[in-house]
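Today's session is about reading a structure prediction critically. Students often jump straight to the picture, but the first step is always the sequence itself: look for stretches that repeat, for charged clusters, for runs of hydrophobic residues. Only then move on to the predicted structure, which in these notes is written as discrete structure tokens rather than atom positions. Here is the chain we will use throughout the hour.
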Amino acid sequence: MEQFKLVTPEKMERELIAGYFNELSNEEAEVHGQLNLKRFSTNGGQSYNCEDWLETVKKACRWPNTDETVPTETMFLVREYTLNYGAKNLLPNERIVGLVTVRLALNYNLFNSNGHISVSLAPHQQSRLKSEEIALYLTLNLLKKRNIAITLVTPEVSGVSEEACVEVGGKLLHRHFDDQHEREIKRYAIMTDTKECDDDLFDLVAEWPE
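Below is the predicted structure for this chain, in token form.
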């Protein structure tokens, strides 16, 4: 049985964290901005200072809302896969399959660009859309617990697809053309009340975020 949960970084083994970031391209990692672990490598990604990164992640929850920072939570999307061996023997297996950055407030730049959520999925994900959906589903649940009723997501720069936004109830807010990167940018508003998604995604949740 396959299920997913959001896990705080300090609960993950350091080797798994570094291994996950090594799988990401620089572009995928960059969506997490200042909380991109690759910023904490001094030798081109051969090794990482995970302890400094973890300390920064902890402090980020208390960052002030300024032009440079906003309060931010970072969690790994973990797949929990249970194999049955006999009637009573269960063998759980956990793997990091993504990283989610959740901004608890937005400054002017983030309001007009990235929005509340950034997601990076590991390249080995076979069912990317379902993983994107469950990542958004769990993150919306977290934002609701943080008293945020509506979240803004920009698929082109947040690491999630437009299709995934629509699947979890997202509504197109507006679109504009980005002259700098020569592409169309679409903004979606998504209610953090996810009851409409429960029939499709509820059984995929191993543990709800606190």
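Discussion point for the tutorial: The mean pLDDT is 88.
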